[in-house]
Design brief:
Length: 459
């Protein structure tokens, strides 16, 4: 999976969607998520041309008691995009138009295309995830986030949504018209309807200077607040078993963009990803090597550096990302240092697994969206990642228990096991969302496995 620094995706990122020849509305399809751990065989694949067609498809499904699931790029690790029956692919709804500082974007547009179109208009978004292959619908379906202690998730910048509800009605949602549903639909888990278009508030395009410093783990934790508050954006990577934290800071700059370094060329070529994939394979076969292997990889590959580039290009990951699994939780920011230390202890003390992937720590400002993991609290996102499929469940369970100590809210698109009672306890506006879901989709047209689990009746 990869994108080059210039923005051209390498094809390995695309989850495998196999359509039968000429099939527009018919079967013969397998959809797999990004790491191919989840597979669905929808009964029908719909690729509507516009919102009217989405409306007709949903209305017929409601009449027939069928289910329809809108999906984006199927990147999610959780079963949030589980397809129990028919699927809606919105790749035809991919237009981007700009009016002043507002961009109106089709929900099937991919972030990489949105970023490029905005840049051509001298505009930018303000919060950037690590990849740009998500569709806008999927991005806001799961509350996808980037990093930056002062910047909320992208969903906070939505000014208006067009949504087809569970009865096939096309509704325009904004702060004046249907404010409650508008607010909730900005992180919607695919539960409230099909988003067909989104209006986003943008900012003038800007460049960022990235600075990477490898800092002693305890020293970096002691200075955590200074890193987060003193920079526009900040993230931490931890190579398991290393005694360093990789501290990445990003600040707005007018400095000239830096030319590609050899390392960046190596990353963008896809070769570094292949080398890393080989290292991961070795650590899976010989887990006991992992504690020595990863610090060695860090010493050889990661060096302090400074780079300047366009904001969206510099924050996203430029190289090939080897297949791996992720779980991630948002916890109150003030508990970040303690929780990061807890994560290190967990990894170092575990005997049942050897965690063999970079762990990630990011920061996001509070928002006012009912089911956003950052709802109502400035948050630190801790990502537990591993490329060992066999031991991932054990690691993720321990990680989840650790995060529960901090009232961690799971990322909807990543692996988690929390049930309805636990989710309800974590979200003060859970009942409001459940009521809106009932009103917007009274027949459960958009229901699937994950929604059944987290909205199961709680007594
Ligand atoms: C390599 C990799 C890196 C990642 N990096 C990050 C990161 O940096 N930050 C982060 O927060 N997450 C990250 N993720 C997770 C990813 O952003 C989310 O899983 C995101 O939802 C994927 O978008 P998608 O288009 O694939 O959506 P899908 O996985 O296809 O769908 C996700 C949800 O959105 C719903 N949905 C999709 N389209 C619509 C629509 N039009 N209307 C209504 N509902 C819709 C689906 O029904 C489903 O519930 C990463 C994932 C991968 C594989």
């Amino acid at each position: 999976m990869a994108e080059s620094q210039q923005g051209g995706p390498l094809d390995d990122i695309e989850p495998r969607l196999m359509l039968g020849a000429g099939s527009q509305d018919t079967m013969v399809t397998t959809i797999r998520n990004w790491d191919r751990t989840l597979t669905w065989r929808p009964t029908t694949v719909h690729r509507p041309a516009d919102a009217d067609e989405v409306s007709r498809i949903v209305a017929v499904a409601a009449e027939q008691g069928r289910r329809v699931k809108p999906v984006g790029s199927s990147l999610s690790w959780s079963d949030v995009a589980d397809i129990p029956d028919q699927v809606l692919q919105l790749d035809n709804l991919n237009s981007v138009s700009v009016d002043g500082m507002l961009a109106r974007v089709g929900a099937g547009a991919k972030l990489r295309d949105v970023n490029e179109s905005l840049a051509a208009h001298g505009l930018s978004l303000e919060n950037f995830g690590s990849i740009t292959m998500q569709t806008l619908g999927g991005y806001i379906g799961t509350g996808t986030h980037g990093t930056g202690g002062r910047t909320p998730i992208l969903s906070s910048f939505i000014e208006e949504l067009e949504l087809v509800d569970g009865l096939g009605r096309i509704r325009t949602l904004n702060r004046e018209s249907e404010p409650e549903l508008f607010s909730a639909a900005r992180v919607n888990l695919g539960a409230l309807g099909v988003i067909t278009a989104v209006s986003l508030r943008c900012v003038p395009s800007f460049d960022l200077e990235e600075r990477l410093e490898l800092i002693d783990f305890d020293t970096a934790l002691a200075d955590l607040d200074a890193y987060v508050d003193g920079n526009d954006y900040c993230k931490l990577w931890w190579m398991p078993y290393s005694d360093k934290l990789q501290v990445y800071t990003f600040n707005r700059t007018d400095k000239p963009r830096t030319p590609f370094t050899m390392q960046e060329r190596f990353d963008a070529s896809g070769l570094s990803g292949r080398v890393f994939t080989g290292i991961l394979e070795l650590s899976r076969r010989r887990p006991n090597l992992t504690p020595r292997l990863f610090p060695a990889v860090e010493r050889r590959t990661f060096r302090d550096h400074v780079r300047v580039d366009r904001s969206d290009r510099i924050i996203r990951y430029a190289g090939t990302i080897p297949k791996h699994q992720e779980t991630e939780y948002a916890i109150p920011r003030e508990q970040a240092a303690e929780a990061i230390e807890g994560m290190r202890r967990l990894v170092l003390s575990a005997s049942a697994y050897k965690v063999n992937f970079t762990q990630e720590v990011r920061f996001v400002a509070a928002d006012d969206i009912a089911m956003s993991p950052a709802s109502g609290r400035d948050s630190c996102y801790l990502g537990g990642y591993t490329s060992n499929l066999r031991t991932a469940p054990a690691y993720f369970l321990d990680f989840e228990q650790l995060m529960a100590q901090y009232r961690g809210r799971p990322h909807w698109g990543k692996s988690f096991n929390r049930d309805a009672r636990q989710i309800r306890d974590l979200y003060p506006r859970y009942d409001e969302f459940a009521r809106l879901r009932q009103q917007s989709d009274p027949q459960g047209v958009f229901g699937n496995r994950l929604l059944e689990r987290i909205f199961a009746p709680v007594t």
